[in-house]
Amino acid sequence: MRHDMFPLSPALWAATAAPPPPTSAIDASQRADVLVIGGGYAGLSTALHLAQRGIDVVVLEAREIGFGGSGRNGGQVIPGLKHDPDDLLRMYGPERGANLIQFAGATADLVFDLIARHDMDVPHVRQGWIQGAHTPRALAVAQQRAEQWRRQGVAARTLDSAEAASLLGTDRYLGGWLDPRAGAIQPLSYVRGLARAALAAGARLYTETPVDSLQRSGADWVATTSAGATVTATRVVMCTNAYGADLWPDLQPSIIDANTFQVATQPLSPAIRAGILPQGQVCSDTRNLLLYFRLDHQGRLLMGGRGPFREPRGPADWAHLERVMVKMYPQVAGVPYEFRWCGRVAITRDYLPHLHEPEPGLLIDIGCQGRGVGLQTAMGRAMAAYVATGDRAGLPVPVAPIQAFPLYGLRRLYVNAVVTWYRMRDGGV
Fold it and tell me: Which InterPro entries does its entry note (predicted)?
């Protein structure tokens, strides 16, 4: 199932991004050492790091650069994973667990390093991420989370209700914790910056080029595009995430392709803006159906969260976020909303990124869990190293079989049921 019904152009990021590099659709069959399918963070990072190693790489993007989650997310660059360090040590053991913690903890570093190293035209700020706690139990979890990262050498700190209110500009949270490694970017400008860097390194990048089929041909792989042109390569790296997972059998049922919705106000007046996230942090909270919010580089207030599983039908599908925004920040009541947009995310069964190698020469990366900007940039670098050397030791997670969600055909029903249950448990804002 290809989610291409809702266009990218209504999103805030499409209206304020740096221009993309010039690209075109493929017009003739080609050969490469490596074919990368998907022009988002993971695919372009893979291509960049392969090209820097002198490996001939072609990238095929079905639509425009960043059409999927890379151009639709909230622009928060948050290191780590959904699982805390102690959980990862229990799940993977002391050696692999420690390696995964180190990998996940450094993902934001890589993003900001690439922006600087390649002189990308990407508005960005790095003042940290606040996780606001909405219940006493959630506050205890946030405090434990901060302590676990402190033991890993991170200057994380807990926040009481007064400090959280001062940093966030709202008194709706009991406290939380602050991770100083995090920050914010213009996400579409960043993925376009990755594309420019990959092209400059020697990668070949084609847009508006959907792949209709992917098949083995002796020792090679052959991708056939919708226009009929083919790309033949020894290795393939598939990085479509929630947009195009149906290209490989059984991959789509291994994720829940939920929709996340966002709204953005018009740029706030200096007086209003001064009282909202005054030090430039980004925030998401501890709700099961979490809220995430930030200011963009032009002073708009963004609010994101879950919406209908289906594609949107009109402004009413964003009304819940607009109500929440005014409850949290009454001072924005009456400020017009300038943008409403949405995008698909790939939720895996264990809330971890997945790597699959269903056949020799085909590597599949899927699953972001709200950490996609940094996680998938770093995953691209790790996958490039593996493709170049064949050494799996540098991969952050083990290569695993594809496993479908149970009763996948009924996912809309049970996702809606879970959403209703979570809303009841989360309570009001």
Answer: FAD-dep_OxRdtase (IPR006076), FAD/NAD-bd_sf (IPR036188)
Per-residue pLDDT of 224-274, as tens digits, reads 999 999 999 999 999 999 999 999 999 999 998 888 999 999 999 999 999
For the segment 57-65, the average pLDDT, to the nearest whole number, is 97
- Give a yes or no: residue 269 inside a domain: no
Residue 287 lies in a domain: no
Whole-model pTM above 0.85? yes
Residue 308 covered by a domain: no
Provide the angle, in degrees to the nearest 10, between the axes of the packed helices 372-389 and 41-52: 40
Name the domain count of the chain.
Answer: 1
User: Within a domain: residue 117?
Assistant: yes
| CATH number where 207 lies | 3.50.50.60
Domain of residue 353: give its range: 1-128+181-255+348-429
Q: For residues 23 and 207, is the Cβ–Cβ distance under 8 A?
A: yes
Give the model's pLDDT for residue 2: 44
pLDDT tens-digit profile of 79-93?
999 999 999 999 999
